[in-house]
Amino acid sequence: MSAESRQPPLYEKIKAALKEEIAEKRYDPAEPFITQREVCERFGVSTITAVRALNDLVGEGVLVRRRGQGTFVADTEAAQPEQTGDVTIACIVNGLHGLHGAHVAHILTEVESICAEQGYQLVLANSAESAEREEGSLQRALRNGAKGILLYPVQGHSHAEVFAQVRRAKVPMVMIDRYRPDIASDAVVVDNTDLGYQLTTRLISAGHRRIATLWGETEATSVRDRLAGHVQALRDHDLPVEPDLTLLRPYEPLPDDERAGMLSTLLDWPEPPTVFLCANGYVLAAAARDLDALDVSVPDAVDLACMDDAGPYDLVPLAMIAGVLPSAEMARKGMELLAQRINSGRPYGRPARRIVLPIAIRERQLSRRS
Question: Which of 38, 97, 150, 165 is 20 to 30 Å from the Cα of 79, by its Cα?
Fold first, then answer.
């Protein structure tokens, strides 16, 4: 590809367009600048691209962030000194399937909006379900002087020492979506136990008596709590808890042939499951593809349900019932806790708190099973 044919990155194009408008004095320095949401809508780009463009403009001194007020065009004529970037927030998310899925995108949109309102400098990192990447991101946050950390943690219990380093450095940290039971930290989560219970109860009410669970992650508190709620609902309705149907084992991360083999084994039983209860939209997507490859009709032969809508927008509607994550509220509550810790002067001066949010359930017309 020639140098002439190479196109600049999208965020550079956005920066150039905004700089031109600023030079033409289309924005009043006394009024807040356009928000990240408006950048996304106007230019048709992702949250990450919009954040990169706005952060670069702040770094270049074109824009300034004023704590508690938002982002403004730098008023060079007034020569008004502004403190920029004096509070840096590190937001480390677990975007295994990238940063553009609905759940992660809504979290990032809300976090960026709050940081702009409060005048915080935001630094984003994606652990991509890698404990090593998460550990590296936490260490960089400490080296770069982050004043607070919002963490969507990876599954498992590794690299506990880096969390001890965060605490010794007196940097407050809030976990969202799930928590680490071995780490004393504020957390904002949904009521996963109730979610598993309510979804299972509704499936039973629709006539399903043989419900097979399919998982992605298996070592996250959110997953284990959902399984606990599912099992309790089966017991409360006097249904057997069959290990082959409730076993907490990975499905979505497996190779295609192994996933298809797992489904074929279950469907070949004399009394096969009538619905697959999938951990999230990504697991649902894998199950839908595998069932289609096996020439198994959904919902005629077997139905699909989904524990949450974190996944591709165009596939979650396949589910007869699904939980709807309060992603933006989760991020907002997490940032509120983080700001309280930052402003307290004693970030670890009181016990860790856990906020548990309710989760909505949406469903299409449930077809009863005989």
Answer: 38
Question: How many domains are contained in the chain?
Answer: 2
Residue 119 lies in a domain: no
Strand 121-126 to strand 303-306: parallel, antiparallel, or no bridges (unpaired)?
Answer: unpaired
The pLDDT of residue 7 is above 80: no
Which two three-digit tokens encode residue 223? 């997953």
Band the pLDDT of 201: cuts 50, 70, 90. very high
Question: What is the overall mean pLDDT for the chain?
Answer: 88
Asked if residue 224 is part of any domain, the answer here is: yes
**What local confidence, expressed as pLDDT, does residue 5 receive?**
46
pLDDT at 107: 92
- Secondary structure class of 346 (helix, strand, coil): coil
- String of DSSP letters for 16-52: HHHHHHHHTT-S-TTSPPPPHHHHHHHHT--HHHHHH
Q: What pLDDT, in 10s, does the model give residues 215-229?
A: 999 999 999 999 999
Q: Is the pTM of this model over 0.85?
A: no
Rounded distance between C-alpha atoms, residue 323 and residue 317, angstroms: 11
- The number of beta carbons lying within 10 Å of the beta carbon of residue 345 is 8
Question: The CATH number of the domain where 31 resides is what?
Answer: 1.10.10.10
In a domain, 239, yes or no: yes
Give the residue carrying structure tokens 């399984």. Answer: 227
Range of the domain at 274: 192-325
**Under a CB-based contact definition with an 8 Å cutoff, are residues 173 and 151 in contact?**
yes
The answer to whether 136 and 83 have CB atoms below 8 angstroms apart is no
Contacts of 45 (CB under 8 A, 6+ apart): 10, 11, 14, 39
Cα separation, 259 vs 267, whole angstroms: 12
Judge if 198 and 318 occupy the same domain: yes
CATH of the domain at 315: 3.40.50.2300
